[in-house]
Amino acid sequence: MIPHAEALLKPLTIKGLTIRNRVMSTSHAPGYGKDGKPQERYQLYHAEKAKGGIGLTMFGGSSSVALDSPATPWAQISVADDSVIPYFQQFAERVHAHGAKLMIQLTHMGRRTKWDTEHWLPTISASARREPASRTIPRAMDKNDIRRVVRAFAEAARRCKEGGLDGCEISAAHGHLVDQFWSPSVNQRTDEYGGSLENRMRFGREVLEAMREATGGDYVIGIRMSGDEMLEDGLSQQDCLEIAATYAKDGLVDFINVMGGQARDEMSHAISLPNMSFPVAPFLFLPSAIKREVEVPVFHAQRVTDLATGARAVAEGHVDMVAMTRAHIADPHLMRKLIEGRDDDIRQCVGAGYCIDRIYVGGDALCIQNAATGREATMPHVIAKADRSRKVVVVGAGPAGLEAARVSAERGHRVVLFEKDDRPGGQINLAARATWREALSGIPRWLAAQVSKKGVDIRLGTEATEAMILAEQPEVVILATGGLAHTGFAKGAERAVTTWDVLAGRIEPSGSVLLYDEIGGHNAASTAEVLARKGCLVEMATHDLQIGQEVGTTNKPIHLRELYKAGVILTPNMELIEIYPEGNRLVAALRNTMTAAEEERVVDHVVVDYGTLPVEGLFASLRAGSVNDGETDLDALVAGRPQRWTGEDGYALYRIGDAWTGRNIHAAIYDALRLCKDL
Amino acid sequence: MTAASDPAFGLGLLVALLAACAAVVAARAALRWRIGRAARVDRGTGVDWMAGLLAVPRRYLVDVHHVVARDPHAARMHALAAGGLLAGSTLALLGLVPPLGASRLFWITTALAFLLALVGGAMVARRRYPRRPARLSGGTFQRLPLLLVAYGGGALLVALAATLGDPLAPLGWLGLAMAAIGGFGLVRQLAGGPMRHAFAGALHLAAHPRPGRFEGERATALMPADLEAPRLGVATPADFAWNQLLGFDACIQCGRCEVACPAFAAGQPLNPKRLIQDLAGAFKSGPPAYAGSPYPNARPVAGIGGPDLPIVGAGALIHPDTIWSCTTCRACVEECPMMIEHVDAIVDLRRFQTMELAAVPAGAIPTLSESRYAEEPGGRPLSARTDFAAGLPLPLIADKGSCDVLLWLGAGAYELRHGRTLRALVELLRRASIDYAVLGAEERDCGDLARRLGDEATFADLARANIATLSRYAFRRILTADPHALHVLRNEYPAFGGHYELIHHSAFLDELTAEGRLNLVAMPDGRLTYHDPCYLGRYNGETEAPRRLLDRLGLERVEMERHGKRAMCCGGGGGAPVSDIAGDRRIPDIRMAQARATGAATVAVACPQCAAMLEGVTGDVAQVRDLAELVLAAVEAAPASQGAGR
Predict the structure, then answer these.
(1) Residue of A1, A6, A101 to mutate for B, most B C-beta atoms under 10 A
(2) Phi and psi for A126 in degrees, rounded to 5?
(3) How many separate domains does chain B show?
(4) The pLDDT of residue A378 is above 60
(5) Is the same domain home to B84 and B18?
């Protein structure tokens, strides 16, 4: 039971456009654009949310209106010419077929983009002030630029309307061109576009007026903006209130989509896209304040991960619509489950930021725990029943094993799941012990609840043996036994302990610690933070160019902030070559990867992270008896076909997750989903 | 031997004397009813004495017997004791007539009658000794079998002596003495004891407030209160109509109401039997003598009562928690062999508490004020009533002007749970191509909750406003998934000038499936039980349509022990959920346990209150599904090509 859930189900009408409920997904960049167009993958991703009951889904988190705001970064959409219109039409039909509304976000990124992409045009802005995040220095716009970009916004809006989209918003958030004009941190102009707030608001006003003119009075046009840039020389909350109130009063916008902060550098990304270290809905006060000042509906997204928070935000009148964007990446059927009274089945976003972090390194948005998201063409969100019920034995109840058991059970198979630990979760249980990473525990919690709901025979505290597995007379055996941490390959490595030993509490280090990381993931950074908080003097060394190299944009700054605050010494470009004892202490020998100069540290403990190696004992003993010699048909796996041994007498043996090769949670879950959906 | 010294002749005189005494005692008791207000009859007329008295034998032998016979042993016991007593006494009286008194055959017949009375009395004794069942009252009631046996047995001896003659004459005198002791004891019990039910019950049948109950009608509508009266509702016994007072005196304390009462079972401070005894005692001098089971967890009261003293209050006879515990489920009424109208009395008492004293339970205060000022008990905007549709198109009658079926949404539409039911129903209407519409924001609350909570003024306003709205549109009938709205619109709006053809969705879907307008496929195996909503089953007599409908789904349907018109309440009626009077257990927990006891995995419901109450049960529960949801699942499972109207 979700209190006030009915508040979310109330339709909202904006200018004659009725949105069926109060839950939406904001425009974002999943990295699915192809040739600057929203093609099948992009459309199916949003159509799935529509099918799942969402009221409004907005796409194209910053679709470009002009050539000097290229679509290539983040694989975005270009609305700079009419060739996009047929794609919009197809897209709108797909989403409308499921009763949801579809809108787009239009923008000119100004200085917040790259000049060295498809068109090689200089970036432009209000003034020639470099943006730390994009590292480009723009050209200050002249009147011709202003006229041209205003025209481009108007043309783009017309294309949206002709494409059958239900509306659009302009992005004046995250440091795009319109808010570059607003913000005194960028706009240093002395003409009528700079100086007073009224002057700084002029460019945005011209953009919105031109868009209105191009689309007629009945088209829904909104704005996404910050409620407070939280930047010393940026827009204050009072400035933002005034901008919102003025634009709304003057009829320039039909809704205001409010977020908090900005995105000019690394840390501001982490704040404006809050991860699991933040409380839920940390910036709800910003739209709430704006809502008091305006007559138009107010939307808001920022870590509203659960329906209870969303319902509270709407029921208490802070917002008119609540955007649960990442929540829909985790479970696009969120609203349908609420409506059908199956809210216990909602896979809740844990705030790992895996989706968003991938796009900042040029990848596609994927969910750490839902491998079907973004893969709708090949991966089902609702698992179909198999023609025949099989007996499936899964060994290991980490994320891979749990997902394998879940999917197999949904297929109608009879599943036995062995887990030697007394609770499910595998390595996630370890990772979740590290300070702000606790919310990772939501992943196995949901999986385990689903698995037990689907009637899987779960045997906790039971280390499966070959005899126990064969006694089940399985047709399929899936080994998800995970991996084990090891102390690596440096000379004297046996004197080191692993990050696992620390997180699991098997050792309680004190004194000085050298933590050596060869993975660059969350694990070592989290462990360094744990050690420092326990009072150790910690130096964290890594072979990589920087600490936490593999950790993404919205998470890395949080790690670095915590490590700096805890006084951890950060030493990149250093390789661990030897550990030897000296008295009752240890000497760690390090070599600089650039200069080859060697250094030594005298410490009480050396803690290392070299990732995991698969646990292979059962595989070796079961392999001979299996019909497939333990082989996975990779062609079939990738093509989405059943494994070729399916149906043969005896059992087929597969490995998934870290038992196959140590990778990450998403890989483990994807291994399981794509194998089991065809079993 | 002279006739005068004959015990048989003495028996005749004794009977004549007893009859005379009984008449005096009864008349004195009857005089006390006169303190009440004018008789109240749901037909809006006074008591039709002629028709009523003429109908008594039929009402007694058919309607009362129908209730009594649910306990066959009790029916036989009563037939023997009462029949034997009446027949024997009448014969004994006739024995005063000379030719008969000399007839051996006559006395054999008389003896036989008293033998039957004796057997009946013995059965009464057997039921009460050595251990009295909890639902039966003790005290004078425990003496009843002794008196019956004494009178019947004594008279039997007299009749036997008269049959066999002199050898047994001493036995005859002994018999006469016994009969006299028993007989006077019984007459004494006419005043305040068990025997009161005999004459009060007979008169109650003649002057019953709801004569329709004896003519095959459900007759369950509450009667409107006169809002111009100097006092609204009932504060003192004198505020009751005299035929209600008569009804209270008809109680025989059999305890069937107590067994049926959900509040009693939950340990809330309500016992319908005790309540009726308190009301019967309230207009007599002295505290009521009562030796039955008490109000569970009884709240302390002063125990002071009298014809013109308040009935309800900590300083009076009945604690307010008692009257607010009632769910108005009418299970007590349904079970009462004396046809007493408990719920009418409770609502009358509530009316005074609510309208004159504004003394309602804390939880009911917002409900009533919102009902009055927002025209919706939850205070939610009327325009939000259609939000449940969650994107489904809902035709508004304001746009269409007319329709065949007007869908009345009810207060449940605001709840997520019932929203699912309504969406299923709307989808079924669409699939069956029904010409339907809703009132949308023009639908006000039907007033059920306000009325059951005693706020007749708000109810009357809501009724008139809804009737005015409905009068602007043309429709053939009103469909609703809410039995409370069904009852109010069908049975209670006529008194305010609104006459509509109502149909509950169970009956409507039964129609559609029977006509083949919805194609169902049999659902996969599963065991299901159906929980009858009080306001559908007991209030409106509809117990078969839901079952016919469910049987078409192909599931294995099992019945709970209490089902149909005798089903147990979910605890959701009469404002009980907002009044929220504490007990030992929750009523829905008890009902859900009954459902689970059948082994059913699903309990089918047909009322938003039942769904909410039963779904609120935690632990080992059956899943709760409304009929509409079950039917939609079966329709969706059917091949799409067969779906009519797609």
Answers:
(1) A6
(2) -60, -45
(3) 3
(4) yes
(5) yes
